[in-house]
Specification:
With about 190 residues, the protein is α+β, with helices and mostly antiparallel strands. It has one domain: Aminopeptidase, CATH 3.40.630. The chain is about 25% helix and about 25% strand. It has five helices and seven strands, in the order βαααβββαβαββ. It has helices spanning about 15-25, 30-35, 45-50, 105-115, 130-140, and strands spanning about 5-10, 60-65, 70-80, 85-95, 120-130, 145-150, 160-165. A seven-stranded mixed beta sheet has the order 1-2-3-4-5-7-6, sandwiched between helices. β6 and β7 form a beta hairpin. The longest helix is centred in the middle third of the chain and has 15 residues, at about 105-115. It is globular, with a radius of gyration of 19 Å. Residues about 180-189 have low confidence and may be disordered. The chain binds coenzyme A. Coenzyme A binds near residues 94, 99, 102, 103 and 133.
Length: about 190
């Protein structure tokens, strides 16, 4: 396996929009299973720009994962949605040719880190019920179904899945620090 590198994708960076659209095009089985059609051509733009009400571009990141210079995976993450302590994983995509090699799990680890950096103690996402491969993946990663909603345009309802963020560490209030931590003289430690 080549080394996996990552960086934020940006529609203003030449090549990023096209590379992301090619990544969407590299998962035909996902589109057929989930939407009953191939990708339409606007998916990369939607990944960058689509936002729920009340959220702005500053709340969203699209992380790209590269192997040997090629974009092989991405994660789209929304800060503090649908509530301040939750990060919403809008999309996790691994190129079909690279699936089943542990990349999805490695990308998810980075998502946990990023969400923890935002102070988000929970992760939430939606998976279309007909997407059995992804559904199994999420359940294996410790996500649990918390709701089920109709999803117009998809081949089945959306299952809303959630799990605590394993990387989240609550900030310790200064007042509750033990004396040693709060700066007691060295000889007392
Ligand atoms: C769902 C998806 C993100 C999973 O990513 P992935 O890279 O295929 O998943 P992984 O390889 O990390 O994990 C799948 C299995 O491969 C195993 N695996 C195979 N080779 C491995 C390796 N070399 N190292 C680690 N794990 C490996 C993993 O253990 C895991 O098995 P498990 O489920 O028994 O734990 C990916 O299939 C995908 O992008 N699908 C299309 C888009 C999609 O459905 N996205 C989700 C929408 S909600």
């Amino acid at each position: 396996m080549h080394r996996l590198s990552e960086r934020l994708l940006d529609p203003a960076v030449p090549g990023d929009l096209q590379a992301l659209q090619e990544l969407h095009g590299s998962v035909p089985d996902f589109y057929q299973t989930t939407y009953g059609r191939p990708p339409a051509g606007q998916e990369a733009e939607a990944t960058f720009l689509d936002l729920p009400p009340g959220k702005g571009p500053e709340d969203k990141v699209v992380l790209g994962f590269f192997e040997a210079g090629a974009l092989v995976g991405c994660a789209e993450l929304l800060r503090s949605y649908p509530d301040p302590s939750t990060a919403y994983l809008g999309l996790l995509l691994v190129s079909q040719a690279h699936q089943g090699r542990g990349l999805g799990r490695r990308i998810l680890e980075r998502v946990y880190d990023l969400a923890a950096g935002w102070g988000c103690e929970g992760l939430r996402l939606a998976v279309i019920a007909t997407n059995g491969k992804a559904r199994r993946f999420w359940l294996r990663q410790g996500f649990l179904e918390v709701a089920r909603k109709p999803y117009p345009g998809a081949t089945g309802p959306a299952l809303v899945l959630q799990r605590p963020n394993p990387r989240y560490r609550p900030a310790r209030p200064a007042a509750s620090m033990a004396p040693a931590e709060a700066g007691a003289p060295l000889e007392n430690r």
